[in-house]
Every structure is written in C-alpha cells, then in structure tokens.
Amino acid sequence: MTEDTFFTDAKTQKKKPLYQPNSIYSPHVSYHYNPNVGEYHYGVKHPMKPFRLMLTDHLVIGYKLYEKMDVYIPKPASRDELLNFHSEDYVDFLQKITPDNLSKYSNLLKDFNIGDDCPVFEGVYDYSKLYTGASLDATSKLISGASDIAINWSGGLHHAKKSEPSGFCYVNDIVLSILDLLRYHPRVLYIDIDLHHGDGVQEAFNTTDRVMTVSFHKYNGLFFPGTGNVDEVGVGKGKHYAINVPLNDGIDDESYIRLFKSIMDPLITSFKPTVIVQQCGADSLGCDRLGCFNLNIKAHGECVKFIKSFGIPLLVLGGGGYTPRNVSRLWCYETSIMTDVTLDSKLPENIPFRNFFNPDCSLHPNLGDKLDNKNSRKYLENVRTKILEQLRFLNGAPSVQMSEIPPDFSKLSKEEEDEINELNNEERMIIDAKDNARIGELEA
Ligand SMILES: [Zn+2]
C-alpha cells in the first residue's frame, strides 16, 4: 500500500511514482484498444456509452500503465471473421443498414431484433468490427504466446446471437475469440461476472465439453435476458459444462468473493482449462445505472486477481457497465491487477475529464451500501452445493481430438437439435416479458 505516514513536500510529491510494483513475478500483458471505438453513440437516452472506453483509456494512460504492457491498436475484424460465427444474412443486414435507410428495410427490423435495446445507429457495423477486431487481436497474441494476459475492454459483448443482436450487443466477439482459441487449445474456460447472464456464449457452446461456461448474475426469471437458472447445465455432450450462479439483488463484497472462489477453485482444478476467457462486465458494481448489486471495485477486482493467480493464459474482456465513471475506474484498476502494480487511490491530476470523478477523485469510491442484501447465507450455500454436485459429473478434464475443432454447429444429433429447439421456444416465450422489463431501464 502507498499510505503515507507523513506529509511530503511538493517536489517529493511530484516525483512520487504512480504505482508500486507488487511482486517479482509478472506475466507478459498486452492491451488492445482502438481509440475509434469510443467515438460511437447508441443514442442520447441509451445507457450504453462507448465513451466509457475512452474514459478508461484516459485513466490507464494517466497512471502510465502502458509502461507495463505491450500496447496494440488493433484493426477492425473482417467480414469473413464475423462469419465464423454469425449467419451471412445477419452480417449482410448489419453491413447495409443505416439510420437513413431504415424505412427501406422496415420488414427486416423485427426479424433482426432491432429496437430500443439494439438500435441502428450511425456506424454500427464499423463499431462492431472494431471491438471484435480488438478481441481477435488479443486472442492471437495469446495463441502465439506473445502474451500471457491480453486485455480488450471494448469487447465482452456476451448477448449477441448467431443471427441477431441482443442486449446492446451486435457481434459476439467472445464466441469468435473462443472459436479461434479452440484451434489450439483443448479446453477453454469462460467466466462471466457481468450483472447479466452470459447467454450468447453459453448458447453457442451449449453442446460441447471443450468449452465450460460459468456465469454469475442476477436471476429471477424476468430480469434480462431471462435465462441462467442453476438448472441450465448444457446439452448432449456439453451437459454439465455450463454452470450458472443465479443471484438476488444486493449481493455484497464478502459473500460474492467467498462464493466466487469456492466455486472457481474446484472448477479450475477439475476442468483443467488450458486458456481462460474472463468477461468483466462492470454493471455488477454497486450504483450502476442498470445495476442491483452492492459490489465495490476492489471486490470485483479480487475475482479477476484470483483467476490470474492460476497462471493460465488469460483473455480479459469488458462487457456491460452503465455508469461510465465507475466502469473506467474498475477497468483501470483491473488493468493494474494484471500488470501487478498498486495504484495510488487518488486519481492522477492531469487526466482529461477529471471532473467526472468529483467530488472524491478517488479510484475507490464507496459503491457498496445502497441496497439490502437479498442473498441469505442459506440461499448462497444451497446454490454452491448444487454447483459443486454438478462438478462431480465432470470425471476429470475431457481429452479431445484436436481434429474436432472448431465445433461443427451443423453436426448435432437429432436429439440435441430437438432439445435446443425446445429451449429456444421457451426462450421466445419470455422475450416479450423481458423486453417490457427493459423499457423501464431504458427510461431510467
Ligand atoms: Zn450486463
């Protein structure tokens, strides 16, 4: 810690380093950010503000964290790269639709789930290619071994589906990254600590045992996206390889960290991933515009630090987060965890938009006491027990033929197809309800 025990004169203060090294061990970290991605606008009233990415980058630069990482300005993903997961008709649609020609394609808008959540805004296709390009660039550095940890805060858009956008996400950069990783890695672990269920990623890999998806999120059946109950465990060969941790409002630092570690530790030991993808959605923080948890920045970061401690190659992605000043604080703090330094909790003096962080100008404002914790010890213990029972079915890590990769989505058995269709039908039935629930959020 950098707690001062006495006052320093102005000159010493000026020379004080912005961070202190934590340990001798430091993995090779890379940071993948194309500044253009922060320039897009979903719309004035829309809670998703790509501006939060620019704010994050200002903090990372302000603390000089670039000195501790390889910094890349990635190029946008190509159309062909998007087609590795997304359907051609959907990518065609994204490519041609603009706010000006909406009326010409009005018949397609409903088919492609365009609405208040996922509006057509200026440059939506270019924006999607930018954040996806950064995730794919980060992935390639992990695959080549150039990086042990690769960070893309503009990525992590976990709701996008094969043929439609969902929950502010148009292209699923996570699925595309995991598909690339599967060419070289036998087992990929995906961890999602966004407030919302990581449904798009779970759905894409629901039938394979090569990707284990784990999502911690608010769940009550109606809260967006409506899925993610503890009994969703995967299908066919992927059965038991999807883990869902449904939580109630107001979960606090201590219970979240305890639950997270007590699940992730045995899970990593038994699944033995060769690479981990961590989605760090910031809407699980307390005081988030769309949030309902009580987490502080240090608690969120503690989960990321815990995963890093396993020393397995790690792709670190952003995700949700709708109070830009806290999103940027969190992701800057988590960048410091990855680069193994301790930041002064007082924000650097000369960063742009410093007034956004008034009045405290601290990296660690108190976000943790706004809501009652509706997660009793008994409830959390019950969830944990169910999940640990599920781990017993794993029978050790699956060993795989690398020729199976990437998973062929078209080669499902009839039984698996039926099971998926049934799940999709159920999901359709709750879509109206969850869209209605979302309208309230958008007007907030
Ligand atoms: Zn979210």
UniProtKB/TrEMBL annotation:
It is an enzyme of class 3 (hydrolase). Residues 405-426 are annotated as: Disordered. The keyword Nucleus applies. GO terms for molecular function: histone deacetylase activity, hydrolytic mechanism; metal ion binding. One of its GO terms (biological process) is negative regulation of meiotic nuclear division. It is found in: Nucleus. A divalent metal cation binds at D194, H196, D283. SUPFAM superfamilies: Arginase/deacetylase. Its main location: nucleus. It comes from the Eukaryota. Residues 46-337 form the Histone deacetylase domain. One of its GO terms (cellular component) is heterochromatin. The keyword Transcription regulation applies. The active site is at H159 (proton acceptor). This is Histone deacetylase. It comes from Wickerhamomyces anomalus (strain ATCC 58044 / CBS 1984 / NCYC 433 / NRRL Y-366-8).
